[in-house]
């Protein structure tokens, strides 16, 4: 199995990770990992709302999602 180059603690928000997540590419945001062309690797992530959508079949999660914190990278 390929090496994990970026891991995520699924019990924490992306803001609270050892290497925090972000919502855009920008030169002032430091690189979290480097890979070379042809390398096989894995990255872990959270879903785009940073876990605001629960696995509970409730439409309220979608209705109440806070879009100001969405699309974590």
Provide a compact summary of the structure:
By secondary structure, this protein is largely without helices or strands. Helices cover about 5% and strands about 10% of the residues.
Task: Describe the overall structure.
- Helices cover 5% and strands 10% of the residues.
- The mean pLDDT is 87.
- It has 73 residues and is largely without helices or strands.
- It has one domain (1-73).
- It has one helix spanning 60-63; strands at residues 3-6, 41-43.
- A two-stranded parallel sheet has the order 1-2.
- It is globular, with a radius of gyration of 14 Å.
Layout of helices and strands, plus pairs?
Layout: E1 3-6, E2 41-43, H1 60-63
Parallel strand pairs: 1-2
Features:
single chain, 73 residues, little secondary structure, two-stranded parallel sheet, 1 helix
Quaternary status of these chains?
Answer: single chain
Q: Give the SSE string.
A: EEH
Count of DSSP helices? 1
Number of domains: 1
For the biggest β-sheet, the strand order reads 1-2
Percent range of helical residues: under 10%
Summarize model confidence as the mean pLDDT: 87
Instruction: Give the total of beta strands.
Output: 2
Spans of 5+ residues with little confidence (pLDDT < 50)?
none
């Amino acid at each position: 199995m390929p090496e994990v180059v970026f891991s995520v603690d699924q019990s924490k928000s992306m803001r609270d990770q050892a290497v925090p997540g972000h919502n855009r590419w920008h030169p002032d945001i430091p690189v979290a990992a480097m890979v070379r062309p042809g390398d096989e690797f894995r990255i872990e992530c959270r879903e785009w709302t940073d876990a605001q959508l629960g696995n509970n079949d409730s439409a309220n999660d979608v209705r109440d999602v806070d879009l100001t914190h969405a699309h974590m990278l």
